[in-house]
Amino acid sequence: MGRDAAFPVSLHVKLSVFYCRGYSAICTGLTEPPNGTLDRIAEMEAGWTYSLIPMEIEITEVPPLKPGELSLLNMHSLLNILNVLQGETMLIGQELADDPDLLRESLAVCGRVKASFSDTAAALRFAARVREEEQFILNEIAAQSARFPSREASPEIRESLENIRSVFHILEVRAQEILTRASEPGKWIEIPIDRLRMDFQEVFAAIEKNSHGRFRIIYNLALQQSLDYYVDFVVEGARSSIVSLPLLFKDVMRDLIANARKYTAPGGTINVGLCESDKELRFVVQDSGCGIPPDEIQRVVHFGVRGSNVQKVRTMGGGLGLTKAFLVTKQFGGRMWIRSGLGVGTRITITLPRPSEAGAAPYASREVFSLSASSR
User: Which residues are within 8 A (CB) of 264 and not within 5 positions of it... i.e. 6 or more apart?
Assistant: First the structure.
């Protein structure tokens, strides 16, 4: 088939690359598209702009939430971590005694705590005693491990124990953030940009560790291999070395970045940008994942709803991340948009109006975020 004069060569190449992503042909660099490609393009000519550059949709409302649902959203970051902790605890039981329910008391603690998250007061009580629960679980692991001396020193057990300690470290930090937010719900904080980058590198490291070798997360495109996620994380501030943001917004960033990873296959790309100007804070996360069906974009922001194309994807969350992102955005007077195309990926943009200089408090050090003895 000859080249259609209505399509310049450069456009042939660009459209061929896009539409052949699901084909066996590799079209990059072709000067002549393969047979059938232009027929496909002609059929979709009217909608090619939408497919290549999906329409950006502003999210303006979600159905009202019940008090228990609002409490669960507020504890969402702890819920995800507890799901990981529960999984690691079951893995230790499996490795020690071929019984994922071996550490029954620890699993019961995880279940009891997660059930409490629909009650704000009960959830805050857990946040204040997280170290006690940590010690209880570690003690049971030690006691049960002693029953199986031939297995307790295995690499798998050591790796899971290391993961559990890492999970509890993150849990302590998040718990203290929640306690701080409870006392000052609208608080903005000032964070050194280097500190913020390091915080999220720790998040990525925890995600990678929890994969047990299924994938890596790398930051240099030249090092990316077939099962590596390439992450580009850029932060810029109006004051060069510091950015201001609501403490609660760190949760939103973590949730949306985690979603981008969950719904992108290994080998994909995740781009994250945060920029503070004199007038606003702007956050964008974009992935090369499976995307959202166009007619479901507004609905996936509703509480507990996930896209019909990802129902079988195993996740540690409950379809709450986008709901929380929208409600936090509205709480701080901001706006939120979603742009997504099936097989292309998703881009989420959030802007928040910046408060006066007096509205932001300096960022506390990591030591301050550890739970003190008086709070236990």
Answer: 229, 270, 287, 288, 289, 290, 345
Retrieve residue 214's tokens: 């299924």
> Is the pTM higher than 0.85?
no
Q: Is 78 helix (H, G, I), strand (E, B) or coil?
A: helix
Phi first, then psi: give them for residue 123, nearest 5 degrees.
-65, -40
**What mean pLDDT is reported for the chain?**
81
Cα–Cα distance between 373 and 307 in angstroms, integer?
A: 43
Q: Where are the domains of the chain?
A: 9-53, 63-183, 188-364
How big is the chain by its Cα radius of gyration, in Å?
Answer: 23
CA–CA dist 154, 359 (Å, integer): 51
First-to-final CA distance of the chain: 74
Residue 16: pLDDT over 60:
no
Residue written as token pair 């090369």: 288
The pLDDT value given to residue 372: 28
CATH no. for 188-364: 3.30.565.10
**Residue 291: is its pLDDT beyond 50?**
yes
pLDDT in the model for residue 162: 87
